[in-house]
Each structure stands twice: as structure tokens, then as C-alpha cells.
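Progress note, project year one: complex with pentane-1,5-diamine.
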Amino acid sequence: MIKLIRVFLSVVIASAVLLFVINRLNSAEGFSSGNTITIYNWGDYIDPDLIKRFKDETGIKVIYETFDSNEAMLTKIKQGGTTYDIAIPSEYMIQKMKEENLLLPLDQSKLPNLKNIDERFMDLPFDPNNKYSVPYFWGTVGIVFNTKLVGDKPFTSWNDLWDPSLKNDILLTDGAREVIGMGLNSLGYSLNDTNKEHLHEAKAKLDTLTPNIKAIVGDEIKMLIANEEAAVGLVWSGDAADMMGENENLDYVVPSEGSNLWFDNMVIPKTAKNIEGAHKFINFMLDAKIAAQNAEWVSYSTPNKEALKHMPKEMVEDERFYPSPELTDKLEVYENLGKKNLAFYNDLFLEFKMHRK
Ligand code: N2P
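Model obtained:
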């Protein structure tokens, strides 16, 4: 019996030692322990200089990973392999993550810089009282076009993309909601339509755009269009702003049938390990000058009204990228359509991509 107790005790002690060692190793490698935070963000969506600056100012090291769609982000967070302290999803995905109990409520007492955010972007329907999320960037979806390559052809409607003169000249951003949404909008349907007949109709309409589509791409769309590899693109507004900074022949329009208005926001996933550090990072990004520097580098529109004062006038007065509430009121924000409907959008998009090959 005594022997048995001895064996038992040694097993307990050995496991405790092992756990302690694993723990130390983890923190040494920086898995979001006291001195590290792990951030999960869209590609090209932060000035790298700010990550360094955050470390210099707070001593907190940043592990930084990127994703290229809300859906990919969700899958990775649910898998739980890496635990993230900060993620930056769009509004409909935040709604979904809230429903799936994947987010931690924020401690607003640790975010004094939240006062810098324009009221217009606070307390939106996807997250009342900003309980779980803080605005990062916002924008629209539209058409970027090269006036030199397409001539005087005005782009005002989604249907202009179907013009036969644009054969093999259009790049699409690789986003299920954006591309299916374009199909829906071009038919006069809502971006949040869940009627299967309408969705099939949108997919069939998109199939007829195939001859004009050169490729469906990720962040490289900016480089390709700026380098005039294609004349037209379906893009997020900030990407258009970035390209227009590189090539003066480019212009951006939000089509008249309507389009998407989106909001990307910082959240803390439930599995976060360094909640204190995550709040510090959010508050750092909300600082007026930091947000201004970030917006200038990224080219997307900042919801930080104090930041606007530190930015070039021609940037913040450009109605294409800082549209007034009268204009944005006409646009649609994506809703969380529920698991089945979102899967249906994704399946249609995949079929559409395969059909092209
Ligand atoms: C940045 C992508 C921005 C995402 N590359 C728009 N929601």
C-alpha cells in the first residue's frame, strides 16, 4: 500500500514539474503570456512601425498574423490552435462571434481613448454600446477603374462591368459576400438576400461575367491594378485609395444600385491569454496621432475623429473615401445571415470560382 502511495506521489510531482516547465517554455516563446500579445488582422492592415512602437512604449511584444477573409479568421479562431488576444473582424462576423460566445466583453475603463471615435461609428446595431468591439476602419465596396485604359466610359452601375469591351480586364477581390453581393446588387436585390432563387439568379448572372474576369485575387489586387495589369476592379474603398496614390489614372465609384458599407472592429476573443495587454493595444490604436499614422499608411478610412485633424486635408475631404452620412445611409451593412445562409453564399462563390476554370 505504502509503495502504491509512493508511486502515486511521484507521478503527481513529476506531472507538476512537467506542467511548470511547459508553462515556462510557453512564456519564453511568447505565447501570449504577460509580455506578449498575439494579434490576428487582415493583410496590409496596420503600419508595421506601430507594432514596433507599441513594443517600445509598453514592453509588450507582438506576435502578428494575418487573414484574408472573415470566414478564414473564424475557422482559425474556432480551431483554437493559436490563441489570439486581438482580432479585427467585420460587423456581420462580430455578430456571429457574439452569438457563438467567442468574444470577451471589453473593459471600457481601460480604453480612455475611445472618446476619440466619432459618435457616428459607435453603438451600431451589430454591437450595442460597443460591449465587445471598438471601431478600427470603415469603408465601402465599389469599382476602381483606369480612365486611361477604359476611355471615357463612365462607371456608374454594377452592370457596366458586363460591357464586352472589358474582356479579360476585370479583377475581383476574393470575398464571398462581396462577389455574390455584386451579383445580387446588379439585379436590384439586397446584399442580405437569403431567397435561394435570387441567389441562384445572382450566381447565373455572375457566370455571364466570366469572359471579362481576369482573376479573383487577394491583397495583390492593389499592385496589379496600380501596375495596369487590369483596367477595372471590384475592391474595398481603402484598397482603391491605396492604388490611386500609386497611379493617377485611377478613379473609384460606388455604383448607383447600392453597395456595401462595412465596419472592421477590434475584439478580444474569449480564448485570449493577455487580456490586460489586449486592452493596452486597443487603447494605443485609438490614440489620435497613432490612428492618423495608421490611416495614412493603410489608406483606409478612420472612424477616429481626432485623428482626422492630424491627416492631410485632401485625404479626409475626399468624399469617395469619407462619404457623408447622406450617402452611406443609402448603402447596406452586411447582416449575419445565420450558418446555413452563409454556407450557401460560400458554396455559390466556390462554384462560381470553379466554373471560371
Ligand atoms: C485589408 C482588407 C480590408 C478589409 N487588406 C475590409 N473589410
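The first strand starts at residue 36 and ends at 42.
The mean pLDDT is 92.
No further modelling is planned for this target in the current period.
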